[in-house]
Amino acid sequence: MTGLHIPTPAIIRPPPPTWRDRRPGLRLPPRFGRQTNIEALDQQRRFTPAEEEAAAGGISFVGGTTAAVIDSGTATVTLNSGLTGGSGSAALEDDYVVLFGAAAFSQITPKNITNNGSWGSISAQIEANDSHDSTSEVFGKVMGATPDTSVGIDTDANSQSSVVAIALVFRGVDTTTPMDVSSTRDEGTNAAAPDHASITPITSGAWVVMCGAVGHDSGSQTFSWAGADGIFSDGENDTDDCAAYAAYYDGWSSGAFDPNATLGNPTFSGTSDTGDSWLAHTLALRPA
Predict the structure, then answer these.
(1) Do residues 241 and 220 lie in contact, with contact meaning Cβ atoms separated by under 8 Å?
(2) Which whole number is the average pLDDT over 80-101?
(3) Under a CB-based contact definition with an 8 Å cutoff, are residues 54 and 175 in contact?
(4) Which of 73, 158, 159, 221 has the largest CB neighbor count within 10 A?
(5) Those residues with Cβ within 8 angstroms of residue 249's Cβ, 6 or more apart along the chain or in another chain
(6) Residues 201, 122: contact at Cβ < 8 Å?
(7) Which alpha helices (H) appear in the chain, and where do they start and end?
(8) What is the DSSP string of 45-59?
(9) Using CA atoms, how far apart are residues 12 and 10, in angstroms rounded to an integer?
(10) Residue 209's beta-bridge partner residues?
(11) What's the rounded Cα separation, in Å, for the pair 148 and 204?
């Protein structure tokens, strides 16, 4: 009878670590089982959709929205749904929102533009006085973990005034320093024809944002701008009518940028009059 032969158990060694296992900062247990690797990778920080899109490179446009009211009411724009013209319908964490507020009135004393969401000013209030006065300001905010659902624009002008709010939502903007350089502003009278001051961004990939408004008496009018990459406009009809727009352009490459000279003039849908006034803000967004 031959002796019983018991084979020596095979030594099972874990597979060698892959490049995934060697990611900086990743600490694995002593054994390298496939399931263990996946669990360890899942413990890595997860990026927000806004961060992932930004990592893909450059600024992108998420969408825009507008609102207009009369009698000095609050013009409220919704940010968590209903955005159009871009890649999404809602603002997400780390998105940057440009909020433009404008009003028309018939009072010579300066009138304030404010927002009801404690947003910071990124282009100071300016005002133009004619038969139909106008005032405007641009605000901005980086969306937090719980993005704002809405924000409103208010004015302390009289009850015959009209108010417009416009929000543009961008992704891939530097959340620490959203403004590449200080904004530029200009204002004028005797026409409904905003003429933007030039701006000189300093960071490659910066986008230019143009916000303009007019006080007039042509009813509910808006603006178009064929040369811009995108434009959102709204208007309202009161004793003093307001038409406003916010537009953007992603084609700047170097040097000073003059929006009207480069893109042509924004087009007012109403009839320009010598009693009208206009306002124009030019801003540059810095990419992340």
Answers:
(1) yes
(2) 98
(3) no
(4) 221
(5) 207, 208, 209, 210, 227, 228, 229, 257, 259, 262, 263
(6) no
(7) 34-42, 49-55, 259-263
(8) PPPPHHHHHHHTSS-
(9) 6
(10) 248, 283
(11) 29
Encoded tokens for 127? 């005002």
Q: How confident is the model at residue 114 (pLDDT cuts 50, 70, 90)?
A: confident
pLDDT tens for residues 146-193?
Answer: 999 999 998 887 778 899 999 999 999 999 999 999 999 999 999 999
Buried b / exposed e across 176-215, counting CB within 10 Å, b at 16+? eebbbeebbbbbbbebbbbbbebbebeeebbbbbbbbbbb
Q: Any idea which residue has 């007019």 for tokens?
A: 214
Place of tokens 């990611």: 23
Q: Which two tokens stand for residue 18?
A: 């892959």
Q: Coil, strand or helix: which one is 96?
A: strand
User: 74: buried, middle or exposed (CB in 10 Å: 19+, 13-18, 0-12)?
Assistant: middle
pTM above 0.90, yes or no: no
Contact 99, 209 (CB under 8 A): no
CA distance 145 to 149: 12
Return the residue matching tokens 């749904």.
81
Q: What is the DSSP string of 11-66?
A: P-PPPPP-TTTT-TT----SS--HHHHHHHHHTSPPPPHHHHHHHTSS-EEEEEEE
Domain boundaries, the chain: 10-44, 50-285
For residues 85 and 247, give the distance between their C-alpha atoms in angstroms, rounded to a whole number: 12
Q: What is the pLDDT of residue 20?
A: 43
